[in-house]
Amino acid sequence: MSHETTKTWAFPGGLHLDDHKSISNTHHVTRAELPRQLVLPLSQHIGNAAIACVAVGDPVLKGQRIAKGDGYVSAPVHAPTSGTVTAIDEQPVPHPSGLHAPCITIRVDGKEEWIEHSGCEDYRTLDASELRNKIREAGIVGLGGAGFPSYIKLNPGTSAVETLVLNGAECEPYITCDDMLMRERAGEIIQGMRIMQHALQARHCLIGIEDNKIEAFAALREALAENDDIQLVRIPTRYPAGGEKQLIYTLTGKQVPSHGLPLDIGVVCHNVGTAAAIYRAIVHGEPLLSRIITLTGSGIPQPRNLDVLFGTAMCELLEQVHAKAGDIGKLIMGGPMMGFEITDSHAPVIKTSNCLLAEHRRDLVQPPAAMPCIRCGDCATVCPALLLPQQLFWYAQAREFDRVQDYHLFDCIECGCCSYVCPSHIPLVQYYRFAKTEIWQQERDKQKSDAARQRHEFRLERLEREKQEKKQRHARKAEALKPAGADKGDIKNDPKKAAIMAALERAQQKKQQSHIQPKNVDHLTEAQQREIDEVNARRAAAHKQDQEPSS
Ligand code: SF4
Ligand code: SF4
């Protein structure tokens, strides 16, 4: 049976770019040198940052979990080698903001001493939930650059998965890490795909590879056993063929709905690197500790792909390929289209670092100043998501975030095709990123204020409830302590009530007595009484005189 299929569908827009791949894919992947220390950010994925579960001074073994996932969309972090935790603090991390973030620093002891671990030779003895748990515990996230926790994408719930797609397109210029992985570890990728197929119960398996990766295609074809139902598909080399929605359309002719997921059309898509990581986790019991990263660009004398432990400082890697810090004019993590600039080369390699593109100082050209939009429409012609980039730009610039969403901002994959062709050199993608960040922030603020309002309403409800309960308690008490005479029959028959009523009556009498004020006219002698009577008589006579009209 042939593993190849030729039927493909052409997605709209896109660009033919110089790929610059041959700069870095002529050497075998080599292991990067073991660094003296590793700095592991707690957030190397989409979702909540992991929570550190070691303390400063703790010894750690290779593969030991040092931070646990926080909630459903999160992934744990493991020690990439043995050593001692020397700090848990804020360090520079690879992020477009250039901000620092919480990290665990490990001083490497050089022994590479593993924690006890074991794999499962036959993944078919495990059910889908066991596989997902192992993949989750191994800290595996999408290695194509997105960093979404992989176990979530392996949980289709009640949806049926028609097709499992592996993304081997690697369409962005310069990057060759997936290409080299497919050439050198094709067997691991195929095994990983089978594990995923078993977990998803997917009916069809497709691997999409751009047709400029001839060696990778041949390696995968060789790794496929006879009568295997996994199909290899050569797809035309056109950027961004490796975008998830574009690849799915190219391979299946099905469109992922706006605001929807591939699962909505019965498809699940993973990167080839993720498949290899899943194989290592399930069959060898190894968590995700390293990845292949492309070091390329005119600032690097020996471009190549290195297998690098997470936490290795980028500047140390650059030294290993003989790059001089003073020569590098610009350092980008990712490719030239979708990557972002690294402002501090001490930032570490993380799970989503697929490429370090270093531009030599002499090749650095200042981007031309942005000019007003001339409404040429070129941006719309190349947009693979069929958006209207020009309108998105206007509304993003005017901060009209409702309108920008009406124009499907969140369908934008930030591929950069529109910015690339814009004759006015408008940095369109930067405007879209800005708008997305603002909308997310507004959404977060709204959620916070909703939560605060809900808390306030709950408090008012609780106070009102307590007030009513208190009122009822008092009413019950008053009922129980009704005054004497009420329900006499009951009281007579109930010695407890009778005793209470007697005590109450006594208390009332005492109270009444205490209100009687002694008078100084009590217990007078006869003489005193006479004297008082005389005074009163005089007072009455005087009063009468006052009442008579004067003549
Ligand atoms: S390509 Fe640039 S100038 Fe042309 S319509 Fe789009 S934003 Fe305007
Ligand atoms: S960056 Fe967004 S708007 Fe521009 S071409 Fe790509 S998908 Fe379209």
Characterise the protein shown here.
- This protein has 551 residues and is α/β, with parallel strands linked by helices.
- It has helices at residues 128-137, 150-153, 177-184, 186-200, 214-223, 244-252, 272-284, 314-320, 378-382, 389-397, 401-406, 417-421, 428-480, 488-493, 495-515, 526-547; strands at residues 4-5, 30-31, 37-41, 51-52, 59-60, 65-68, 77-78, 83-92, 100-108, 163-168, 204-210, 230-235, 267-271, 290-296, 304-309, 328-333, 340-341, 355-360.
- The strands form 4 sheets. The chain has a 6-stranded mixed beta sheet with strand order 2-15-14-18-16-17, with helices on both faces. A 5-stranded parallel beta sheet has the order 1-12-11-10-13, sandwiched between helices.
- Helix 5 links the parallel strand 11 and strand 12 (230-235).
- The mean pLDDT is 91.
- The structure holds iron/sulfur cluster (2 copies).
- The site of one iron/sulfur cluster has 14 residues, from helix 9 and helix 10.
Fold topology:
Layout: E1 4-5, E2 30-31, E3 37-41, E4 51-52, E5 59-60, E6 65-68, E7 77-78, E8 83-92, E9 100-108, H1 128-137, H2 150-153, E10 163-168, H3 177-184, H4 186-200, E11 204-210, H5 214-223, E12 230-235, H6 244-252, E13 267-271, H7 272-284, E14 290-296, E15 304-309, H8 314-320, E16 328-333, E17 340-341, E18 355-360, H9 378-382, H10 389-397, H11 401-406, H12 417-421, H13 428-480, H14 488-493, H15 495-515, H16 526-547
Parallel strand pairs: 1-12, 2-15, 10-11, 10-13, 11-12, 14-18
Antiparallel strand pairs: 3-9, 4-6, 5-8, 6-7, 8-9, 14-15, 16-17, 16-18
Helix pairs in contact: 1-4, 3-5, 4-5, 4-7, 10-13
One iron/sulfur cluster binds next to helix 12 and helix 13.
